[in-house]
Design brief:
Helix content: under 10%
Bound molecules: zinc ion
Strand order of the largest sheet: 2-1-3
Largest sheet: 3 strands, antiparallel
Radius of gyration: 15 Å
Number of helices: 0
Number of strands: 6
Oligomer: single chain
């Protein structure tokens, strides 16, 4: 999984951002990170159009941030 770290303050995000909400920095460094432990897991039974009828989602710790991921 890719992480984006603010060059100015080091805050990490799992999505690309235009501006860092912490320091207003605009430069980010991309790096690979391993998925950590699942903090919360649940199964969705009502899903958006174009997605399977049901699937699991997990809130996962990824180094200095958290990510919401879909699991089959
Ligand atoms: Zn920053």
């Amino acid at each position: 999984m890719k992480l984006y770290a603010c060059v100015k303050c080091g805050m990490e995000f799992f999505e690309r951002r235009a501006v860092c909400p912490t320091c207003r920095g605009e430069e980010f460094m991309e790096r690979e990170a391993q998925l950590g432990e699942a903090l919360v897991e649940t199964q969705l039974f009502v899903t958006p159009a174009g997605f399977p009828e049901k699937y699991k989602i997990s809130l996962i710790k990824v180094d200095g941030t958290k990510a919401l991921v879909r699991r089959e």
